[in-house]
Design brief:
By secondary structure, the chain is α/β, with parallel strands linked by helices. Helices cover 67% and strands 7% of the residues. The chain has two domains: 35-176; 185-424, no CATH class.
Length: 464
Amino acid sequence: MNKIRKPIIFITLFGSLIFFFYAFYIDYQNSKNYSIMPTEDQLNSVQKNGYNFQIYNNYAILKDFESQGFQEDQSFLRALSNRYDYVLVVEFSDFDKYFTEIKDKLDKDILNNMRYVHYIKPGEIDKFDDQMIVQRFHRALKERKIRYFLFPDHPRTPELIRLVQKDLGTPVTIDSIKYYSPTVVVPWIGFGLITMNLFVYVPLFAILYILAFFFLYNWSFTLAVTLFSIIIFFRISKNNLLKIIGYALLFGALVYMSAYNSLFIFKLNNVRGIKVLLLVLPLLVLLKAFMDFTGFRFSRFNIVESFKKIREFKFNKSDILLLIFVAFAGVIYVVRSSNWAFVTNFERRARDALERAFIARPRTKELISYLFYYTTPLSGRRFIWDFFKALLPVSILDTFLHIHTPLNLSVLRTINGFLVSLLLLLVVILIENLYRKFTNSDQEPQKQEENISQEISTTEEGIE
């Protein structure tokens, strides 16, 4: 396997570079312009067969929605898609939450005629300042390719529209929006490259991935990055940052390629099982630490003896604080990875500031993980460091599961995270050096006085 591994990596690099520029072109075409519809109160409201929707030109808009059962809902959506140019889903609305649950089951001919529209509620306008709102619409276009904007009837709406236009340029008419779909060959190339790379490291992984791709398609992307995270951390390196980042970027691009079709890039299909990726590698790291410490082996299943060793383990007071920190970080790590997680206004402003500064904001999980690469583990507590180190490849690979985000932004986000971590490291080193210099400067006069006293006493002894 080692003999063919290098040629496979070379082929993968070459294919990924070509795909990067191809995806850049497609993503640019799908986010280069946008349209602002009339305010919500100016749209025509329609009620049909118990369903409510709005109309603008030849576009149907779905926001408030009451399901009448999946089959009835699908028939209703098919009728809309046949009647109108596009069926627009209001992002983060009641219908969007329901649509997220059913989109994987809907027929593709319906989904291909649907797109998202970004909308801000009147209550959110009251809550957020102008810059935060403008940044929301900026992200909708540049990060999620949402090209239709809708505002409510609100006193601040005219000014907000002016600021959005100042940020994104002059909007076009709704009929001028054109979409570019990737060629159907691209995902199959991604599938082939993933299979080859998994096979040269762990052949069983390649078999599992092939089965998932054909029978659990929406889960196959998460399975692929999960398997790649295990390969990176346990087979390639868990300490060499450049290797970890490089391989995570490469393998992440392959998974992105395997899902690069119009349904995923326009948020019309779900990537399933992301929590699996977030949990598997960190848990495997803890399991390995448990096995190394206790000698537990599944072949012998000596679980009783292993737990006896755990009871004999001597905990320090600092360990209790460390365990509480790890448990708290673990809960936050999983909960905050949700798309519907609560975010404070302070955090929103901080995120917006970072996005304006870096274009693609570094992920907090990665910055925390870098800290454990730059510090020395406490004696006997290396597994804690390994646990947090494992978050880095997981977080980088997770970035590439957001297929609706342009590939260049995902790559830039990872690079920015590494550069910011180096900057933080330099700041810490500078502060540490200044502290040592200040401490040493205070000790020098005291040392000089001690030396003078010793010389005087030595002289007196000589006289005597």
